[in-house]
Amino acid sequence: MASTEHFTTATSEMDEEKEAPPPQDLTLGWVRDALVRQEDSIVFALIERARFPYNAPAYDPSLLPQQGGRSLVEAFARGAEVLQAKFGRYQNPEEVPFFPDDLPAPSVIPYNFPEVFHPASAYVTENNAIWNMYFNDLLPLFTVEGDDGNYTSTAAADLVCLQALSRRIHYGKYVAEVKFRDAPQDYMTAICAKDRDALMKLLTFEAVEEMVKRRVLKKAMVFGQTVTLEDKTFDDETKYKVDPAVVARLYDEWVIPLTKDVEVEYLLRRLD
Amino acid sequence: MASTEHFTTATSEMDEEKEAPPPQDLTLGWVRDALVRQEDSIVFALIERARFPYNAPAYDPSLLPQQGGRSLVEAFARGAEVLQAKFGRYQNPEEVPFFPDDLPAPSVIPYNFPEVFHPASAYVTENNAIWNMYFNDLLPLFTVEGDDGNYTSTAAADLVCLQALSRRIHYGKYVAEVKFRDAPQDYMTAICAKDRDALMKLLTFEAVEEMVKRRVLKKAMVFGQTVTLEDKTFDDETKYKVDPAVVARLYDEWVIPLTKDVEVEYLLRRLD
Question: Which of A75, A81, B101, B260 could make a disulfide contact with A70, Cβ separation 3.0–4.6 Å?
Answer without folding.
Answer: A75
